[in-house]
Write a structure and sequence with these properties.
Blueprint: H1 14-25, E1 30-34, H2 38-51, E2 55-60, E3 71-73, E4 84-88, H3 94-102, E5 111-113, E6 118-122, E7 125-128, E8 133-135, E9 142-145, E10 151-154, E11 159-161, E12 164-167, E13 172-175, E14 180-182, E15 184-188, E16 193-196, E17 201-202, E18 205-209, E19 214-217, E20 222-223, E21 227-231, E22 236-239, E23 244-245, E24 250-252, E25 260-261, E26 266-267, H4 272-277, E27 279-282, E28 287-288, E29 293-295, E30 299-300, E31 305-306, E32 311-312, E33 315-316, E34 320-323, E35 328-332, H5 358-364
Parallel strand pairs: 1-2, 1-4, 2-3, 4-5, 8-10, 9-12, 10-13, 11-14, 12-15, 13-16, 14-17, 15-18, 16-19, 17-20, 18-21, 19-22, 20-23, 21-24, 22-27, 23-28, 24-29, 27-30, 28-31, 29-32, 30-33, 31-34
Antiparallel strand pairs: 6-7, 7-8, 25-26, 34-35
Helix pairs in contact: 1-2
Length: 365
């Protein structure tokens, strides 16, 4: 088989679930979508294709999006439950629900709010009717479950500052004790997982772990702002312990777009079988310089350093410095310390002080 194996063959799709519920209740009224963004447009397109139901318009609280034709202020819904059926495909906001109820709309009968299904929401536990859970303290965490049966686990003293988390079907996030993530968007696809260990620090960027993919980061990890992780469908990215990455680092496990051979019509870069083999493997105690791109099938050994503005792909041995596009080994038998102007090599960590493996050194010299 050369094609991708679809994850959702026997799984519920949240957009299909929404439009099926709307079809049961809308009773030939005009259908209105709350929010004007990409997912709302997809709901409108699929609803018309499946049931022939056209979206009358969108409503918004954001004045910048309102044109009074296609996007109208939310107040236009007031007292018009007999005319409009409202779809709300947003994260749960009590104030939004309060508006609808005060304007005479009844849950399900007059509006469908996918995220209005909370069973329990305490300081250290969340559960909804779709089988989604958050385990651990999550106050002030912005999260959005766009699917079913997903779990977020927070360790002790986790800090998420100005972050938002999007979770799809059967997806998993686990964040270890005392890890801090700032100004980041985490989007975890169907059947995907993201794990980061304890004492990590991620200072602002984008993390996309797509369908059936995984991203695993060890303890004592740090990365500067401007990072982008694109862990493509069915691929994997694994990062070891005690790694230190600078800013503007880009990770791409696959090409993210399909390339065909014109003569054969064959997908040559992103079939299910090819994608499963695509990995980024980074060892323990690796230092990545600023503005480095790391591509699929990169393998970087323990204790190595990748120079600024390099492109890392293929195998790079342990305890070396590699730089350039593509990165080549420029020095072997090195060790590094997080401490600037360290005076003793033991400050590199005794477990990371070893010579570059001879066989790997020869293949890269």
């Amino acid at each position: 088989m050369s094609g991708k194996k679809p994850y959702m063959e026997e799984k519920r799709d949240w957009i299909d679930y929404i439009i099926d519920e709307v079809y049961k209740y809308y009773d030939k009224r005009e259908v209105v979508l709350w929010g004007k963004y990409e997912t709302a447009d997809e709901i409108a397109e699929r609803m018309e294709k499946r049931y022939g139901i056209k979206t009358a318009f969108h409503v918004e609280s954001d004045a910048a999006k309102i044109d009074d034709i296609h996007v109208r202020p939310k107040q236009c819904l007031k007292g018009r439950a007999d005319q409009y059926y409202v779809i709300v495909p947003l994260a749960f906001y009590q104030s939004l629900k309060d508006d609808l109820v005060s304007w005479g709309y009844r849950k399900d009968l007059d509006y469908f709010y996918f995220s209005d299904c909370i069973v329990q929401n305490t300081a250290d536990y969340y559960e909804d009717l779709h089988g989604n859970r958050i385990i651990g303290k999550h106050r002030n965490v912005k999260f959005y479950f766009t699917g079913f049966n997903s779990t977020i686990k927070f360790g002790q003293d986790v800090l998420l500052n100005d972050c938002i988390i999007y979770m799809n079907n059967d997806s998993q996030i686990e964040i270890g004790d005392k890890t801090e993530i700032e100004k980041s968007v985490l989007s975890i696809g169907n059947g995907a997982s993201f794990f980061v260990g304890c004492n990590g620090k991620l200072l602002g960027g984008l993390i996309g772990v797509y369908e059936n993919a995984s991203l695993k980061i060890g303890n004592n990890f740090s990365i500067g702002s401007g990072y982008v992780w694109s862990v493509c469908e069915c691929t994997e990215c694994v990062i070891g312990e005690d790694c230190m990455f600078s800013y503007d680092i880009y990770f791409f496990t696959n090409d993210a777009h399909t390339i065909f051979d014109i003569k054969t019509g064959e997908n040559i870069n992103s079939t299910y079988e090819i994608s499963q083999k695509r990995k980024i493997i980074i060892g323990n105690h690796v230092w990545i310089g600023m503005r480095v791109n790391i591509l699929g099938n990169a393998e970087i050994g323990d204790g190595s350093i990748i120079g600024a503005s390099s492109l890392a792909k293929g195998k790079i041995p342990n305890n070396c410095i590699a730089a350039g596009t593509p990165a080549k080994v420029v020095r072997t038998d090195v060790a590094w310390s997080r401490k600037n102007m360290a005076e003793n090599i033991v400050e590199c960590g005794e477990e990371y002080i070893r010579l570059t493996d001879n066989e790997e050194r020869k293949s890269n010299e």
